[in-house]
Design brief:
There is one protein chain. The chain is of the alpha+beta class. The longest helix has 25 residues. It contains twelve helices and 18 strands. The strands form five sheets. Strands 3-2-1-9-10 form a five-stranded mixed sheet, sandwiched between helices. It has three domains: about 110 residues, Nucleotidyltransferase, domain 5 (2-Layer Sandwich); about 90 residues, Nucleotidyltransferase, domain 5, CATH 3.30.420.40; about 70 residues, Actin, Chain A, domain 4.
């Protein structure tokens, strides 16, 4: 028995959903132990990490010049190597209660259209953060498992996983992906759309944290039964002073219409490309939504209206990917079948 395998006895295996917006860590036997924003605050003067996760998010748009809050993930893939590595190390240690000497086996969910270079980047970051083994799985696949779809059966399951950086649409049958497509339009893009809409319509400049709040409080994809309004505070671009504007749900729906349209289009294309036998299964079973974007009001209604198919939302949409990835830790046979090697 070599030192490495002796060591892996003491390590606890981890499943990580390395998301553009949030990172979740699942420990075998313990469930989800970390659920924090994928953000790192770095001191530019000495390169030290000031804060990670929730604390760093509080700092976005509020830091002095020498501290920057960085989102190391962009569109579901690593945009900043060094920072991602620091973030992973921090979350792995946090999951293991700050023990320094841990070499866990790690399973990580990645977007389906990830390039070999991006794949390498995720693996390297995990190895540098002290992993003993790294396995990558497609987010759409693990989201389907986390949402409780019977993916091992020979029948069609359609999952739409709307995260922070990417929306993954996939049709799965017999533990394999029959069709998958990843579009880089998701939660963050929606926030950007709200920022630019308010800038155009009201000359009001708001930060990304405010935009996210607007999306959560009054965002929708289809007409609501009861109208919603919200006061938004920002800076008037013409006068340069703080100003408050009241918006209603129809305006924010208009702001989000392009993003929602892109997601709808990806779903339509997936349905067109699905083999007829599996289409029949999907028309019975319908489409399952997961990821934070599944929580956008009436998105399910909009998809139902446009496709005529039943649409349901996963039980815990934000955690679907990490729960599915967590299932891999105890089912190495399935992991072998679906990991991207």
């Amino acid at each position: 028995m070599n030192f490495r395998s002796l060591f892996s006895l003491f390590s606890r295996d981890l499943a990580i959903d390395l998301g553009t917006a949030n990172t979740l860590v699942f420990v075998a036997g313990h469930g989800i132990v970390v659920n924090e924003p994928s953000i790192v605050a770095i001191n530019k003067t000495n390169g030290e990490v000031e804060a990670v996760g929730r604390e760093a998010k509080e700092m976005i748009g509020r830091t002095p010049g020498n501290i920057v809050a960085i989102r190391p993930m962009k569109d579901g893939v690593i945009a900043d190597f060094k920072v991602t590595e620091k973030m992973l190390t921090y979350f792995i240690q946090k999951a293991h209660n700050r023990k320094m000497l841990v070499h866990p086996r790690i399973v990580i969910g990645v977007p389906s259209e990830i390039t070999p270079v991006e794949k390498r980047a995720v693996q390297d970051s995990a190895y540098r953060a002290n992993a003993s083994e790294v396995h990558l799985v497609e987010q759409a696949m693990v989201a389907a498992i986390g949402a409780g779809l019977p993916i091992t059966e020979p029948s069609g399951n359609m999952i739409v996983d709307i995260g922070g950086g990417t929306t993954d649409v996939a049709v799965i049958s017999m533990s394999g992906i029959v069709y998958s497509r990843s579009v880089r339009v998701a939660g963050n893009e929606m926030d950007e759309a709200i920022i630019s809409y308010l800038k155009k319509k009201y000359n009001l400049l708001i930060g990304e944290r405010t935009a996210e709040r607007v999306k959560i409080e009054v965002g929708s994809a289809y007409k609501l039964e009861k109208p919603l309004t919200m006061e938004i505070k920002g800076r008037n671009l013409i006068e340069g002073v703080p100003r408050t504007v009241t918006v209603d749900d129809s305006e924010i729906r208009e702001a989000l219409s392009d993003c929602v349209g892109t997601i709808m289009n990806a779903i339509r294309v997936a349905l067109e490309r699905t083999p007829p036998e599996l289409s029949a299964d999907i028309s019975d079973r319908g489409i399952v939504l997961s990821g934070g974007g599944a929580l956008l009001r009436n998105l399910d209604v909009r998809i139902r209206e446009e496709t005529g198919l039943p649409v349901s939302i996963a039980e815990d949409p934000l955690a679907s990917v990490v729960l599915g990835t967590g299932r891999m830790l105890s089912d190495f046979q399935l992991l072998r079948r679906i990991s991207l090697e």
